[in-house]
What we know:
The chain has helices spanning 33-45, 77-85, 104-118, 132-135, 149-164, 208-217, 228-241, 266-280, 283-294, 328-342, 346-353, 363-375, 394-399, 401-406, 419-423, and strands at 8-12, 50-53, 61-62, 65-66, 92-98, 122-127, 176-179, 184-187, 200-204, 220-223, 253-262, 319-320, 358-361, 381-384. By secondary structure, the chain is an alpha/beta fold.
Amino acid sequence: MTVRTRMHLAAHFPGVNSTTVWTDPRSKSQIDFASFEHLARTAERGLFDFFFLAEGLRLREHKGRIHDLDVVGRPESITVLNALAAVTERLGLAATVNATFNEPYELARRLATLDHLSGGRAAWNVVTSSDAFTGENFRRGGFLDRADRYARAGEFVATARELWDSWTPEGVARPFAHQGRHFDIAGEFGLPRSPQGQPVVIQAGDSDEGREFAAATADVVFTGHGTLDAGREFYADVKGRLATYGRSPEDLKIMPGVTVVLGDTAADARERAAEIRHRQVSPQNALLALERIWGVDLSSYDPDGPLPDIDPEPEPALAQGRVRVADPLAVAERWRALSRAKGLSIRQTVIEASGRQSFVGTPETVAAELDEFVTAGAADGFILVPHLTPGGLDEFVDRVVPLLQERGAFRTEYTGTTLRSHLGLPEPVWKG
């Protein structure tokens, strides 16, 4: 008898990105605890695996000024999750914390504290940075070459795991010592082994080095692929790397970030999706997106007019605190071709070219499409990125989750208490 594949679901709290529609009157604060609590409680009501917070270490700038179309301020993730641990019971709590601008002992202690306070529900989304602009906020700003960021991150995770393993499962503290290229520390860790052995490790990154890092280190991969075929290619590639590290396909869950727009009919859903995308890409945001690629001031251009006929500058530097576009000229050529083929303006081109992977339709069709991605080997589940703070998850939980449950594609109750149990991950073997 074939065992039914069940998907995993997580919720991403909207924040510093172009997904959130801040002009919607239902949009609330991204700082008030009530917003975090509402979305987390909704995710737990929907039996989601975990609640996911991103990170912003410096206010982003554009043309030398703080970008006034961005949200200003983001609370520290682990602090927020410690508070959410008190108002949730089963929901996993995932914090994005940078491995470039932190130290293993301090971060391992904070994550272990969250795991103890929550009863085994903590997760760490490992990110890296070689951005000197962000690094200026830290003592060693800009010290790390881009080529070294994954090397430091890999050693950071390994060192944190050594710290978490320095207590025996029976509660006996043992000294630790780590000597490596990036860290040379020794002493005694301040907390016993946590309820799920170690916090869950999440990783995001689509480059070859990112995929290898995930295969070697991560429990969950946060990715994004716009089509079923692209998802299957990524899924097969990353899962195929696991054996090199003595791991099985079940040891790593691949969960792309997705948006969902629902309607009573397919036409209604498409209309809502178009309106949301139109509001996400304002005229100002359209020019900002273009300036990130071209690297020059385009404020004189009409967002409803044609794309620039000039080529991008080789070293774009207008935007600070954002991921650099890898090949601006190639992106510009693709966007021009799209604009010519469909007769699109600047704003229309940005809307079409930069849209996130989305599931748009009736609750029934969305449930079926999500299920297909999992059963076809394109994902183990999804991290939902709503466009409203904090109520953007409500409709999905009320209208889609019951349909997934009817299909046997999603749980009808939590059967464990830890995040590892929700994800079906084995408890790490103690290596003390």
